[in-house]
Amino acid sequence: MHDLKIIIIGAGIGGLAAGIGLKQAGFEVEIYDRVKELRPVGAGISLWSNGVKVLNRLGLGQPMAQIGGRMDKMQYRWKTGDLLNDIDLFPLIEQVGQRPYPVARADLQNMLIEHFPGEIQLDHKCIGVEQDEAGVTATFENGHQAKGDLLVAADGVRSILREYVLNKTVEPQYRGYVNWNGLVPISPDLAPPNTWVVYVGEHKRASMMPVGGDRFYFFFDVPMAKGTVANPDRYQAELREHFSGWAEPVQSLIDRINPEQMARPEIHDMGPLPQMVRGKVALLGDAAHTTCPDLGQGGCQALEDGLILTQYLTTTNISIEYALMRYERDRLDRANPVVEKARQRAEMIHGKDPDITQKWYQQLSEEDPAAVTSAISKVIMAGPLH
Q1: For the chain, what is the domain count?
Q2: Is the pTM of this model over 0.70?
Q3: Is residue 213 part of a domain?
Q4: CA-based Rg of the chain, rounded to a whole angstrom?
Q5: Does 248 fall in a domain?
Q6: Above 70 in pLDDT, residue 203?
Q7: Count of beta carbons in the 10 Å neighbourhood of residue 319
């Protein structure tokens, strides 16, 4: 099946990485995206070792190491600054065979664009897809049509093609909290440069994580009703209010943020879905399994999708439909439990049941760091590249 032509809708992390892998496998690949220019949503992403290993497999280990942050430790602190847990990540790195790389989304997306050996057609909004014996035809709002042997819908949480695959509409669900995020220069009065620090309390979080370019990727989480207004002029005042009385580094962080370069999404997830494939059309990444960011696995799962898709298209020669069916079975078994696990974690962190969150705070201060790294390792090692 090596002379296949593959249409990819969506030039996010999942679509681009899949495109690179499929191209390396000898397939013809065209990537389309609805945006006029590629501007990543969200400031940063924590790429755990299972995601990094997929990039290694694509030959991108070196450039990834250059843009990723050096994260040797993880610290939980109470809102007042008291240390709850200090976790050395070296045992984890040793266990799984690869260090994690928190990274600025723009850096990751640019690296993938640079290494995709083909054209990315922007300003092409896919509005429909049809398939028959001969293949798949994607139709775009601007009148363009693209024909291929199969189509990969990597068009994100608000996927237009998901409805086609499922034959029904599935809407993302609000998970009860708002997340402000952005980038600031690394500075020792905020946190040690090689440490991911998370302040917790009142069902909220304030966090800093090192990424490339001597910057921290930061985020603030606050449980809130759906539909609150995002107004950059108010971000600092809002955060000062929500984190009043929290430790000095949290206050300094709020002082230093640039509201113009921040995102403030309401966190949604979606799924688990019963299927990811319809004939010659396959969902990939957030279109199939939008995941709360509380496990740091959303991007990693999209990267794994691309790897497994390429694997089945190159190793099975019964039919495209058969290869996609194998891809679907494999990925539903892997990604759906991650969606559910991340959702449970989001609820535990953000006080859906205050007693459970209270227990978690207690557990953080008593937990053996090895138990923390072993839980992270379990999620990583359940992926395709052990």
Answers
A1: 1
A2: yes
A3: no
A4: 21
A5: no
A6: yes
A7: 11
CATH number of the domain at 106, please. Answer: 3.50.50.60
What does DSSP say about strands 281-283 and 195-201: parallel, antiparallel, or unpaired? unpaired
Q: What are phi and psi of 71, to 5 degrees?
A: -115, 100
Q: Which pLDDT does position 317 carry in this prediction?
A: 82
Q: pLDDT digits over 42-73, tens only?
A: 689 989 999 999 999 999 999 999 999 999 99
Joined together, the tokens standing for residue 151 give 């189509």
Cα–Cα dist 15/282, whole Å: 12
What is the SS3 string spanning the chain? CCCCEEEEECCCHHHHHHHHHHHHCCCEEEEECCCCCCCCCCCEEEECHHHHHHHHHCCCHHHHHHHCCCCCEEEEEECCCCEEEEEECHHHHHHHCCCCEEEEHHHHHHHHHHHCCCCEECCCCEEEEEEECCEEEEEECCCCEEEECEEEECCCCCCCCHHHHHCCCCCCEEEEEEEEEEEEECCCCCCCCCEEEEEEECCEEEEEEEECCCEEEEEEEEECCCCCCCCHHHHHHHHHHHCCCCCHHHHHHHHHCCHHHCECCEEEECCCCCCCEECCEEECCHHHHCCCHHHCCHHHHHHHHHHHHHHHHHHCCCCHHHHHHHHHHHHHHHHHHHHHHHHHHHHHHCCCCHHHHHHHHHHHHHCCHHHHHHHHHHHHHCCCCC
Confidence at residue 119, expressed as pLDDT on a 0 to 100 scale:
83
Question: Does residue 332 form part of some domain?
Answer: yes
> For residue range 327-367, what is the model confidence (pLDDT) as tens digits?
999 999 999 999 999 999 999 999 999 999 999 999 998 98
User: Which residue, chain included where needed, has tokens 């004939």?
Assistant: 279
Residue range of the domain that includes 319: 5-172+268-381
Q: Two tokens at 374?
A: 């072993």
